[in-house]
Amino acid sequence: MSLPQTAPAPPATARQQPKILVVDDERSMRELLGIVLRREGYEVVLAENGRSAIEVLEREPIDLLISDIKMPDMSGVEVLRAAKQADQDVLAIMVTAFASTETAVEAMRLGACDYLSKPFDVDLLKMKVREKIENRQLRQENVLLKRTLGLSHQFSNIIGRSQAMLDVFKMIETVARTNSTILLTGESGTGKGLVAQAVHFHSLRREKPMVALNCGAMPETLLESELFGHMRGAFTGAETNKKGLLEVAEKGTIFLDEIGEMSPVMQVKLLRVLQERRFRRVGGLEELQADIRVIAATNQDLTRAVAEGRFREDLYYRINVIPIVLPPLRDRREDIPLVADHFLAKYAEQMGKDLTGISRSAMDLLGQHDWPGNIRELENVIERAVALESTPTVLPESLPPTLRMTKAARVDQSASEALPDGGFDLEAHVKEIERGYIAQALQRAGGVQVKAAELLGMSFRSFRYYVKKYNLR
Question: What does pTM read for this prediction?
Answer without folding.
Answer: 0.60
